[in-house]
Amino acid sequence: MKPVKLSLQAFLMSCLVAGWGLVYVDRIQWGIRVAALMYIGIVLLGLCGLISTPLGLYVLLGFIISVKLASAVTAAVLARRYTGPLNVPRKRVHVLYVGVLVVVTLVLLSVLRAPLLGFNTYFVPTASMAPTVSIGDYIVSDLRAGPPKVGDIVVYRWNGTEAIKRVAGVAGDTLEIVNGELIHNGENLGLFHAQADRVKGPESLTLAPIKVAPGHVYLLGDNRHNSNDSRFMGQVAVEDVVGKVTGIWSSKDRTRIGTTFP
């Protein structure tokens, strides 16, 4: 007698939505438990601060894949052994199950992303931070990194968009650029993460002494000659700093994958 449930369909459904294949074979409670396990695990990883680095992101992806794969294999086996009615459970059960998980996912990745997960990912379309961060890199940021510090690479909001630059100074600091070298509170920090061939032109070589205002940071791009940073757009309010870039989790250049920043 041919099975009335398709193993491949059960497998693919669970790969697409956690536990959905188990619902397909009329193991609704099993499906709910699998989904709960996955979301609770994701939240716990986020609350522990384990997702906001490239390695942590790999762990997260590995965990999600493992849960889905295990439930998919189980659903496929149960489908092969299934002997119940074909139209159980009803379509509305499938719609409700998938709909609830879609809503939970959207809320988790939008409203609750910062407090529960503490990370975000971005694609880099410009070369203002090259070669540290280059066009085609996919970066991960820590949304709970605390106040920005000198040397941090941060994500910030400006004119309705988000971009990345390096913090050159925080509130109260005095900055100056002489011959392309950054003078921070009287201390010469050299080219400050920029390469010599990217420090050219009057805007890169000279900056009159300036004091960072309270509640603000002064940002510079590592690609100093091709960066729209605080030299042109002014200082950035700390409240507009979204997070700290912790590394590159994917890139067109495979040698850059997994690069981390202090």
Automatic annotation (TrEMBL):
**Repeat found in the keyword field:** no
The species this protein was found in: Pseudomonas aylmerensis
GO biological process terms, semicolon-separated: signal peptide processing
Q: What is the lineage of its organism?
A: Bacteria, Pseudomonadati, Pseudomonadota, Gammaproteobacteria, Pseudomonadales
Span of domain Peptidase S26: 101-249
What does UniProt list as catalytic? S128, K165
Entry-linked SUPFAM superfamilies: LexA/Signal peptidase
Gene3D superfamilies under this entry?
Umud Fragment, subunit A
Q: Under which EC number(s) is this enzyme classified?
A: 3.4.21.89
Localization (cell): Membrane
UniProt membrane topology term: Multi-pass membrane protein
Q: Which GO terms describe its molecular function?
A: serine-type endopeptidase activity; signal peptidase activity
Q: Where are the transmembrane segments?
A: 6-25, 32-52, 58-83, 95-116
**InterPro entries on file:** LexA/Signal_pep-like_sf, Pept_S26A_signal_pept_1, Peptidase_S26
Protein name in UniProt: Signal peptidase I
Q: Name one GO cellular component term.
A: membrane
- Alphabetical UniProt keywords: Hydrolase, Membrane, Protease, Transmembrane, Transmembrane helix
Which reactions does this protein catalyse? Cleavage of hydrophobic, N-terminal signal or leader sequences from secreted and periplasmic proteins
Q: What class of enzyme is it?
A: hydrolase
State the family it belongs to: Belongs to the peptidase S26 family.
Superkingdom, natural source? Bacteria
